[in-house]
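Raw record, unedited: Reverse transcriptase Ty1/copia-type domain-containing protein
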Amino acid sequence: MQEELNWFERLEVWELIRRLDKVMVITLKWTYKVKLDEIGIIGYKEFSRVCRSQEHGRYQMDVKTAFLNGNLREEVYVSQSDGFVDPDNPNHVYKIKKALYGLKQAPCTRYDMLSSFLISQYFSKGSVDPILFIRRNGNDLLLVQIYVDDIIFAASTPELCDLFTKIMCLKFKMSMMGKISFFLGLQISQSHRGIFINQSKYALKSLKKYSFESCDLVDTPMVEKSKLDKDKEGKAVDPSHYRGMIGILLYQSASRPDLQIAICMILLLLTAFVDADHAGCQDTHRRTSGSMQIMGDRLISWSSKRERTEFLINKLGMRSFTPETLQQLTDEVDE
């Protein structure tokens, strides 16, 4: 933690000032995250100044204190961190100059800073994917993809990989993680035979998350002849639970395209239609309303009903009508 605060001072992330009136001060908290490799083992390779690539491949690096390099435009104030309060100025607060972790502006500020730097180094931004940057050197090509503080890159020659590593090292504090082996849930294996992707670790983690580790295989998605009873407690159903499972399967289709068949079977989309004609009946001048609900490609419920009209003139105390007229209107309604 002290090392992190030292970086704050070197990069001039904030300045300690007297607390101003009528300003909101955000409370700081420490968050800890251990980065694991593709098999779940704690491991982190420190960056060496010059990493000579012996063979062509795809590599990954981490930008330390990535958010702290972007300048913040808005005025933001935070409290002093617990355990690191200035004894001479315990009531002072920090005025943020750089994009601190956790701020809503931090990701956008970091992206603007990093993209501006890459463009200044003769990179061009992808027209479809804005986080993909391309640099051409004659017939050679250098590709860089950024995701928060992680960067993956590949080039047609080892010299371009070394060049990009040196450029980033001169600008930021980097951690070189070697050939990419795990990125965003994807386990990546590189060899002379090619590049292979699988998501076994992500799949096992997903099964554990939804308590599916010890489930048995069945031929049907529901128990046959299941008798459903009324939920008397009226327990609310969290729709995000089912959506989360579908989202996981969609992401796993990146390495298993055949999962799309199963996803189409369980991806139940609810569609509802409601319509009504205004005074559609020429005899009664009443409207008919209808609705239908479709789950997937199956109709599960429908409704069609003619509007009931009641005259409340006598209840409202309107005396512009004679009693005979009111009785005549009441008889027409009963008919």
